[in-house]
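Input chain follows. Return structure tokens only.
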Amino acid sequence: MISVDDAQCLVLEQAIALPAERVELSEAIGLVLAEDVTSDIDSPPWDKSIVDGFAVVATDLATGKAELEIIEEVMAGDVPRRQLSRGQATRIMTGAPTPVGCEAVVMVEQTIMVEGVSDGPPGRVRIQTDKFAAGQNILRRAAAMKRGDKVLAAGTLIRPSEIGLLAEVGRSQVLVHRRPTVAVLATGNEIIACDRNPGPGQIRNSNGPMLGALAKRAECIVRDLGIASDTQESLERHVREGLQADVLVLSGGVSAGVLDLVPGVLAAHDVEQVFYKVNVKPGKPIWFGVLNREGFRRLVFGLPGNPVSSLVCFELFVRPALRQLAGNRDAQPGRQWARLSKSHSVRGTRDTYHPAILREEDAGRTVEPVAWRGSADLRALAEANSLALFPGGDRTFEPGEQLAVYPL
């Protein structure tokens, strides 16, 4: 039985980033760039006004007061046609290019029209301001980026802000690591579909929908394989189909029971075991293996059948693998630290990942373990928003102690 850290290292050694593909920009959200991106433009492409107001020559506002002739109006999308000289002003809108000779822009709120009207032909404008400096309210050409600048690096997660930047630099298509495909299979003679009423000895399939939802939240393409019974024929048929995906995630059938046939079926399909059993609670009987054939590679996780165990193992081992397959350079589970809000006792040598409530408070983060009745208690898991890590050993943790916490 190996440690969580060792198991995570073994998983990530096998999770090689998937090949890159070019996709439409609209399809790139949540994916990871597979190439550096450079700008093909200066941004902004010209000196531009960042307010509605009047472009002026700085020396005219030496005292903060001036009355100037308005020589033209420049709207966003227009190009100035006249050069500014002393005693002149150009009425200008936000985003419009500043004219030649412009040394500052005065906000419209600091001006009064003395001839003409605000939306009429050019006239004269009176300016009075207590705060004036050369260069104010002008964003200079290429202030944000220059043509040829590297604006995004390979390995960058594409969020909405990156979508906007990619569009600005003319990338209608981008090279990204493709989304992993994940096949999810629940196993067990006792498992029935969630829309059926359980008979004696039966339980509804909660693991399949939960694991599929976890994989979808990880930006994966999910294939629901349904339920396999504890027979060689059923397991072989479903496993054969599941091995068409990048990752096969099974729940149940990996412990030491008479009908725990999954490891044998996987071995028959040339899936090589990497490890079996991890020193973790819940989730000890997790199985991980790899299928290597010419032209493709598959990762296989056999998760315990109890739903809380399945979720904990997904978060600790499957999600990091999916992140690395998708090209993320930081694949490890996100960890925070929080103060324990009430005493909590643990028993046993295994590290326990306990469902808990993580709170942001004025004095800092706190974490409170929820009442949890074991690996099958999904209701307690639904009350939690995190997993609190209690290191192994028989002891009572006191309020105020710092714990590692993994947000869900």
